[in-house]
Amino acid sequence: MDAVRAVAEPRRREILRLVWDAELSAGEIAERFDVTFGAVSQHLKVLRDSGLVTLRQDGKKRFYRADREALGPLADYLQSMWAAKLDTLAGLAEAAEAAERSGQDEGQGS
Q: What is the pLDDT of residues 59-74, one digit of tens each?
């Protein structure tokens, strides 16, 4: 499977985000999802077969990390997508906080 098709699946994009800056074991990755370990393992296999993650085995544990070089131009796209989502989330949090403060201010004036 090519890289674009591999990252088209939302869970695989989330796995890449998780292992973007840190190496994580398969178990640590699976803990973050509401699907079976087997399902996460299949996603990891697709990412590995596409060359998008590297695998390091230590005993029985398998550790994964994003291979940014293999991602090529997709790396910049994914980073900008994640940054945009974080910016949106921050904006929503700030708006909710401002609305809460506004509601408290109105309550104090009564």
A: 999 999 988 777 776 7
